[in-house]
Write a structure and sequence with these properties.
This protein is α+β, with helices and mostly antiparallel strands. Helix content is 35%, strand content 35%. The strands form two sheets. Strands 1, 2, 3 and 4 form a four-stranded antiparallel beta sheet that branches. Strands 5-6-7-8 form a four-stranded antiparallel beta sheet.
């Protein structure tokens, strides 16, 4: 799996209601931004799902997956209807790693699996928010675009 989520790390701020937790990309020995990276998991997963939906539907050919904390992003460039290139970027321009010819369906599978894990953890904690509702909606949208990846667990 390319996106790692540590469900046991999730917590909800009493002040803002934001849900944070450990979420990062893992490609063999390469972790991005780093192993154990803590960020606003529900918010960024919602953004990332929206980006993948736009790539799959042809609304865009390139999407920047942002983190809320730190100056890190992943640029996803669609090379064909089924292949993309991933650039792992620190700051504005420093490319730390590039993965060319990565199957878009594999990225969607990882995102969906992680998003469903995240959504289930939120339900287990009985957390309610607009961001969680949006996460569920985007899981359903992306699942509809990739019916062969398994049934939506929301």
């Amino acid at each position: 799996m390319i996106v790692q989520l540590k469900s046991e790390s999730l917590s909800k701020s009493d002040f803002s209601g934001e849900i944070t937790g450990v979420i990062f990309f893992s490609l063999g020995s390469f972790q991005f931004p780093e192993q154990g990276w803590d960020d606003f998991a529900v918010t960024i997963m919602g953004w990332w799902l929206r980006a993948l939906i736009d790539l799959k539907t042809g609304a865009s050919e390139e999407e920047k997956l942002l983190y809320m904390d730190g100056a890190f992003s992943v640029m996803v460039e669609k090379r064909s209807t089924s292949i993309c290139c991933l650039h792992f970027i620190k700051g504005d321009t420093q490319v730390l790693k590039t993965m060319d010819l990565y199957p878009l369906s594999d990225l969607a599978d990882s995102f969906l699996s992680t998003a469903q894990q995240l959504y289930s953890a939120c339900l287990d904690h009985q957390w309610i928010s607009d961001d969680i509702d949006l996460l569920k909606e985007r899981i359903e949208q992306l699942s509809g675009l990739y019916p062969d990846l398994g049934e939506c667990q929301t």
